[in-house]
Amino acid sequence: MALKEQIIENHNEFLEALRHRFLDDERKAALQRFENIGFPTKKDEEYKYTNLKEITEKSYNFLPKENHNITREQFDELHLGEENFDWIVFVNGKLHKELSKVSIENVEFLSFNYALNDEKHKEVFEKYFNTIASKDLAFTNLNLAYCKYGFFLKVPKNVVIEKPIHVFYISQNQEENTFYNTRNLLIVEEGAKVEVIESHHNFDSTYVLTNSVTEIFTYPNAKADWHKLQNDNNTSYLVDHTFAKQEKDSLTTVNTFSFGGKLVRNNLDFIHNGSNINSFMNGITIIGKDQLVDHHTAVHHNFPNCESYQNYKGIFDGNAHGVFNGKVFVDKIAQKTNAYQQNNNVLLSEGASIDTKPQLEIFADDVKCSHGCTVGQLNEDALFYLRARGISKKEAQALLLYAFANDAMQNIDIEPLKQKISKLLAEKLEVDIEF
Fold it and tell me: Per the database record, which ranges form the SUF system FeS cluster assembly SufBD core domain (predicted)?
């Protein structure tokens, strides 16, 4: 049975298994929209370079087994050297407090499922939940229809959370292919600051499809950083939609580091709802074999005196395929906009490919907007220079590639995360580099 038919057929069983009911009508309406839209195909402009048949022609279990046998040692290996962090751990969709560490105070910090069942937080969800996630996309509607897992964080006015928070999504002990629809909601009130790291991990040889939707609300003079660390195994698929709505004088960053997973699709939408806003999007992709990573970004400049920066670097080997489609929309009232967009790529083999399409749609006349992309191979002169100083060809290539990717890490404030990314870069490039 095709995945679309499975989704429609299993929905009533899924609803019956839930304890919370106040989203039932919204879920049924979302399923109907998904049924009408259907999964995107290569005939759709937004998916012309990404074929989803590998995902949609498999069968999945929609109610994963909750029991697991993950050991503390296995979990510790996923850490970033983050003893001073807080972390929240979901295994097979369920929050596990014994694996989590939450020491922060003065915040509303809950699992998504708990918040849905808590009357005290119903008002917050009605105000924020699914208000900026698009209702016109297949995967966002599918997520609303089936979401059960994820986390909710509200940071009150002027509260600065010093410790980064790492959110782990782990799948383990599943005998069938498994489908997760994770949902995250982050609210950062005026003057508050927080940094979140998100990572997904499949410990089984069965396939895991994760359909994730994240909504971020950043209020005036607030700062929200969200770091996506994507280094899952080759039986993992991830489709991610992140929506960030910013109020005046706020700063929001989304960094995306894609090293693993069979097929990864990242969709990122920034919505400006005030002046003097700063938005940062950075990405590093290093993949090989037959992996695919697709980045689709959009920034909606709706007010004057705002800035956005997009810097994506890609390194592709084997038969890997990369996609970058970055869009900047500048409204007619968004004068004094400063928008920068750059995508640079290196192909290491004849079988590797990249489709890149930076775009600007500008309706204001007093703006500073630029975009560009490059696709090529390593600089032969630089390679010769290093080899002439006794460095092997492999090490010289790795050093040049590390330098190429490094500037996309410059705005990471979390030192253990920066160290982890550096080590993953070195592992992917198969060279020893001292940090």
Answer: 175-404
